[in-house]
UniProtKB/TrEMBL annotation:
Locations listed in the record: Mitochondrion inner membrane
Transmembrane segment boundaries: 65-87, 107-124
Superkingdom of origin: Eukaryota
GO CC field: mitochondrial inner membrane
A biological process term (GO) from this entry: mitochondrial L-ornithine transmembrane transport
UniProt topology in membrane: Multi-pass membrane protein
SUPFAM superfamilies: Mitochondrial carrier
Family, similarity comment: Belongs to the mitochondrial carrier (TC 2.A.29) family.
Keywords: Membrane, Mitochondrion, Mitochondrion inner membrane, Repeat, Transmembrane, Transmembrane helix, Transport
Solcar repeats: 4-93, 103-195
GO MF entries: L-ornithine transmembrane transporter activity
Gene3D superfamilies documented for this protein: Mitochondrial carrier domain
Protein name, UniProt field: Mitochondrial arginine transporter BAC1
Length: 260
C-alpha cells in the first residue's frame, strides 16, 4: 500500500466519525443518563432505555437527544480519523516483510491498543464536556444555577473550578477503555472481513462495490458489538468519574465498579 492510502484512512475515519455521531448520539445520550442516574443511590431511576428516551423527548424535545453533540462531533471525528490512521500505519510497520495476508493477532492487538491509547487524549476532554452536558437536562437533579449554557461554557467552568487537569478527569479510564476496546474491535473486524472475503472467493461469487460494502457493514458491526461487550463496564465508571461534582470522589474505575 502506498503512502497516499494512509491519508485516505485518516479521511475515511473522519467521515465515519461524523456519521457515527449523526446516527448514534441520541443512543449515547440515553446511555449516559442511564449510567449516571441508575447507578446513584438517590438519583432518578429510569425503567429502561426506552423510558429514558421518552422522558427526554417529553421534557426537552428532540434537541434533548442531541445535547452535547458539538463536543462529540469534534472528539469522535478526530478520534475515528486518528484511530484508523494510526492503526493502519502501525500495522503496516509491524507486518513489514510478512508473507501471509491472514490477520495476525501479534500485529493487530498492539497496533490497535497503541491507536486507542493515543486517541484517549483527544477523547477524554471532549467526552467529559459531552457527558456533563448530557446529564444536566431538565429531567436531572442538577440545579438550574449550576447548569452550563454551552459546551464552551462547560469547558471554561470546569477549568476554572478544577484546573487544567480537571478537563482530563477520567483520563486513565478512557485510556483503558480505548486500548482494550480497539484491540477487541480491530481483532474482530479484521478476522470477520478476511473470512468473508475467503468465503466469497471459494464460492466463486463476483465481488462488487455492494458486496464489499456489505462485508464492511457486517465486520464493522460485529466489531462494534465486541468493543462494547468488552469495555461497557469501564464506560460506566468513566461516566460516573466525569460527571461527579465532588473533587474528592474516587477516580479508580475498579473501586467505582465495585461500589456499583
Amino acid at each position: 500500500m502506498g503512502e497516499s492510502s494512509g491519508y485516505k484512512e485518516y479521511g475515511a475515519g473522519l467521515l465515519a466519525g461524523v456519521a457515527t455521531v449523526l446516527i448514534g448520539h441520541p443512543f449515547d445520550t440515553v446511555k449516559v443518563k442511564l449510567q449516571k442516574y441508575n447507578t446513584e443511590a438517590h438519583g432518578i431511576k429510569y425503567k429502561s432505555g426506552l423510558h429514558c428516551a421518552a422522558r427526554i423527548l417529553a421534557t426537552e424535545g428532540v434537541r434533548g437527544l442531541y445535547t452535547g453533540a458539538t463536543p462529540s462531533f469534534i472528539g469522535v471525528a478526530f478520534e475515528s480519523s486518528l484511530a484508523f490512521g494510526i492503526y493502519s500505519q502501525t500495522k503496516r510497520a509491524l507486518q513489514e516483510g510478512a508473507q501471509s495476508s491472514e490477520p495476525q493477532a501479534q500485529v493487530i492487538i498492539p497496533s490497535a491498543a497503541f491507536a486507542g491509547a493515543i486517541i484517549s487524549f483527544v477523547l477524554c476532554p471532549s467526552e467529559l464536556v459531552k457527558c456533563r452536558m448530557q446529564v444536566q437536562g431538565t429531567d436531572s437533579l442538577v440545579p438550574t444555577s449550576s447548569r452550563f449554557s454551552s459546551p464552551l461554557d462547560c469547558a471554561i467552568k470546569t477549568i476554572k473550578t478544577e484546573g487544567v487537569t480537571g478537563i482530563f478527569r477520567g483520563g486513565y479510564t478512557t485510556l483503558l477503555r480505548e486500548s482494550i476496546g480497539n484491540a477487541v474491535f480491530f481483532s474482530v473486524y479484521e478476522n470477520v472481513r478476511y473470512r468473508m472475503h475467503l468465503l466469497l472467493k471459494r464460492g466463486s461469487l463476483e465481488q462488487s462495490y455492494l458486496t464489499d460494502m456489505g462485508i464492511g457493514i457486517l465486520s464493522g458491526g460485529l466489531g462494534g458489538v465486541a468493543f462494547w461487550s468488552a469495555v461497557l463496564p469501564l464506560d460506566v465508571a468513566k461516566t460516573i468519574i466525569q460527571t461527579t461534582s465532588d473533587n474528592s470522589h474516587s477516580r479508580n474505575p475498579f473501586q467505582i465498579l465495585n461500589s456499583v
